[in-house]
Amino acid sequence: MPKYNKIFSLSMLATAILLSACQPRESEPQKVNSPETVQVETEVVQLQGETEKLNLDIPNCDGKNCPEITIERLNSNQAFIDEFIDQQILSRLAGVLNADAIAPVKATASSTAEESSAAASEAVAKPQLSARQKLEKQAQPYMQTFLNLDKELKALSANHSISLMIKPKILNPAEPLATVVLNSTHYLGGAHGSTAQNYYNFDLDSNTLVKLDDIVLPQQKAQLEAKAHEAFKAWVIDSQLATDVAEYEQAWKFQLTDNFFLTKQGLALQYAEYEIGPYVVGLPRLTIPYRDLDGILKPEYLPAIEQSPASEAKAATK
Known about the structure:
- The protein is an alpha+beta fold.
- It has helices at residues 2-22, 79-96, 109-124, 131-155, 212-215, 221-238, 245-248, 310-317; strands at residues 49-53, 68-76, 163-172, 178-187, 194-203, 208-210, 260-262, 266-270, 285-289.
- The chain has a six-stranded mixed β-sheet with strand order 1-2-3-4-5-6. It has a three-stranded antiparallel β-sheet with strand order 7-8-9.
- α2 (79-96) runs parallel beside α4 (131-155).
- The model is unreliable at 1-10, 13-22, 101-113 and 306-318 (pLDDT under 50).
């Protein structure tokens, strides 16, 4: 009997081993990957847009000496900039076309009646005007002054063709400052025409206009003026305007302008005609390199200086 018990025990052990061998193996535990750190890049706000031409009420003209006028406005993704530039366009028109100096056209009875009728219609229903339409309406009195001037010149047998152009342009769309330049040229008779360039700089984060004083460190305006004066002296000599700068300044004295913009090379100071030189020099521009502005301009308006690797630095000193 013990013999059979032993055989039975061995059989049960063999069966248990076989059964355990048939059981599926547990899958190996999967490695749990730690969550990856996602870096979210801050979106940089940029000034984007195009210019749009104003539809001005100018009569048709087929002659050779027809008056020419073109005014464009900025239509961008920054409404506060568009509104500001619109006001600068009106200021430019007021500066160029002095309405008081031109005799107004006498109003006739029919024109007075038409104006009264139009005013009554506006009082009943005032449609919402677009930004372009608003500027067109505000610019129209200056257009009448422009046309009146053309009539006066032709009455004097002048063969000149008067012209006026105003157009903004996005110069720099983003950091450190968004910049818009307002270009204008006009010829209203006389020996020659006139050209102007005005630069306007904006902080898109705070929606504000940035002036020259805003980018200069406290108590450093005098240092900036000294740097600009040095650039002025070099410009006078390089342009062969004079050999003695002190003598030149008796007629064209240096002054620091607020008309500026930032370039890749440095701070550009834009001057108007006759501001620091005769008409022949056009629109003088002085550029102060960034290397001369360290400690004068606020750091956020200076370009980041890339550090060279130590090996490159050592190689450069050999």
